[in-house]
Design a protein that fits this description.
single chain, 106 residues, three-stranded antiparallel beta sheet, alpha+beta
Length: 106
């Protein structure tokens, strides 16, 4: 028996994700692995990479299951990424701090 009301779901595809693994040759183990995301009409999706680098360098503080940016606490990674997308000033400031850290290292 068919449902009298058919429900349709609209799925909007906004981008593409790819995981790339670079291998030197058959005898050597995999050298590098990179996860890339691309948003259609915008280019490469850079927020996850910035987020991970900021956590590694201590710019975004990680406390067990939460993240802290400017005294605001977020429960998961997706909330932080959404916050950074909505607040470009904070994102740009994090990028500048990361650049200083990375340039000082070399």
């Amino acid at each position: 028996m068919l449902c009298p009301q058919r429900q349709y779901c609209l799925i909007q595809i906004t981008g593409l994700e790819a995981s790339i693994q670079v291998v030197r040759d058959k005898l050597a183990p995999a050298m590098k692995k990179a996860d890339l995301a691309k948003e259609f009409g915008k280019g490469f999706y850079r927020v996850p990479e910035i987020f991970e680098s900021a956590c590694e360098h201590g710019i975004i503080q990680k406390d067990e299951n939460s993240y802290i940016i400017k005294r605001e606490v977020f429960n998961d990674k997706h909330q932080v990424e959404q916050y950074l997308i909505e607040n470009t000033e904070v994102l740009n400031k994090i990028i500048m701090i990361l650049r200083k850290h990375l340039l000082e290292m070399h």
